[in-house]
Amino acid sequence: LKPASMQFPESWKNVTPNVEDNIFKNFVILNSVKNKSILLENRILLPSVLYQIDAKNSIAFSWSVRQMMNIDGLSAELTYLFEKEMDLSVTQNNHVQVKNFSAVQMSWAEYGFTYARVLKDKNKHFFKAGITPKIVKGIESAYLVVKDLDFLFSTTDTNSYFNTNFSYAHSSNF
């Protein structure tokens, strides 16, 4: 129950790029020429309360904050850049083209109110039921859509963008 006492592998602490035991080596790379996607989800369960009204009835309040990010349309060239730990030299003098790239990110809060009841109790055998309606409150969101991205990193400080069309939006509190 103490966060300071949690032990992670040593490789999770090493963020130095291009070394044998860094955090990036903890992921499995799937080799494919197809476009790839990334899905990241996070849920923080916050303190909740349960109150037993009597031997058969209970009510509860629970809440959490959730976040989701989805990235689609990563070309083989862009995924190679991720595999090489964002080292831009791996794309140097390599023409990179991405047809349809999109990224969507959002976070929200959920508030749940639960009612549960014991419907049948026969000592070892019992039947319980409950319901949890939720209130969902949006916190923030954003999206980015890039069509026909065409670029070249000539040197570490020179980038050329030949063609692209993009659109984006975000909530005011992003």
Structure description:
There is one protein chain. 5% of the residues lie in helices and 58% in strands. By secondary structure, the protein is mostly beta strands. Strands 1, 2, 3, 4, 5, 6 and 7 form a 7-stranded antiparallel beta sheet that branches. The chain is elongated. The two termini are 32 Å apart. The mean pLDDT is 82.
Set out the fold topology.
Blueprint: E1 36-45, E2 49-52, E3 57-74, H1 76-83, E4 96-122, E5 125-131, E6 134-155, E7 158-170
Antiparallel strand pairs: 1-3, 2-3, 3-4, 4-5, 4-6, 6-7
Structural class label? mainly beta
Q: Please write the string of helix (H) and strand (E) elements.
A: EEEHEEEE
Radius of gyration: 24 Å
Spans where pLDDT lies below 50 across 5 or more residues: none
Q: Quote the beta fraction.
A: over 45%
**Tally of strands:** 7
Number of helical segments with 4 or more residues: 1
Biggest sheet layout: 7 strands, antiparallel
Gross morphology: elongated
In short:
By secondary structure, this protein is mainly β. It is built from one helix and seven strands.
Based on the model shown, name its key terms.
single chain; 174 residues; mainly beta; 1 helix; 7 strands
